[in-house]
Amino acid sequence: MTADPRVAPARAGRPLAVAAAVLGAGHAGPAVTAVGGFRRVFLPGLAGAGRPDHVALTFDDGPDAASTPAFLAALDRLGWRATFFMLGRMVDRHRSLAGEVAAAGHEIALHGYEHVSHLRRVPGRVRDDLERGVDVIAAATGRSPVWFRPPYGLISGGSYRAARRLGLRTVLWTAWGRDWTATATPSSVVADVARGLRPGGTVLLHDSDCTSAPGAWRATLGALPRLADLFAASGVAVGPLADHDVGGGGGLGGDGDLGGAGRPGRR
User: Fold this and answer.
1) Where does the pLDDT of residue 45 fall: very low under 50, low under 70, confident under 90, or very high at 90 and above?
2) Which end of the chain is more exposed for a tag (fewer CB within 10 A), N or C?
3) Which residues partner with 171 through β-bridges?
4) Phi, psi for residue 260 in degrees, rounded to 5
5) pLDDT (tens digit per residue) in 55-92
6) What CATH number has the domain spanning 31-248?
């Protein structure tokens, strides 16, 4: 009997399919940490859980000449320091502004060079992106980033390995303001932060609309005084990740720990 010519190739290709599935899981598997409930329970350090009397305030996607100076002025009025997760390409456009953020006493962190999902990039491209971002930020601010937050909060196997290689601690967030949408308002930003806020939480906001709806940053800026009232009512101080004691010392860290204490979307 003549063999069906489709059978042999299918059998021969089966090991390749299994290998591809394993490699794919290794690359995309860490993305499960993007699920907020999962990381809060099993990886509190990755969720940015820290001192219960403190909230870490973080901003993504800057620096942006159209908006970041307004945030610096507002934070100065409130007496707050924050952590700015900068995009390397934005630093390249606004190098002096990146330096101003650092000079104002804020912590500088890495959001990547490009705002592209790491699940769509091979590990080598992810590594190159992070290395380029670190170099650009260090040159502009005089500071080498300690913290890393991947675009969209999606961690790939390549993200994890590259961050470890560069000695970066990966941290996501506990609460966010959903402030990237065209419908965001100061009230909606505060309500969304309040919904996710926990003692010792890390709050994600944006000081640029470079990857958001045009002008969305205005809702975030308008929300800051109301967030001050929210945090005061909660009895928590506000500051950068450096003061937050994340997970007893780190997020998904350069030393390979998985979130510190307990070892257990969008942006």
Assistant:
1) confident
2) N
3) none
4) 80, -130
5) 999 999 999 999 999 999 999 999 999 999 999 999 99
6) 3.20.20.370
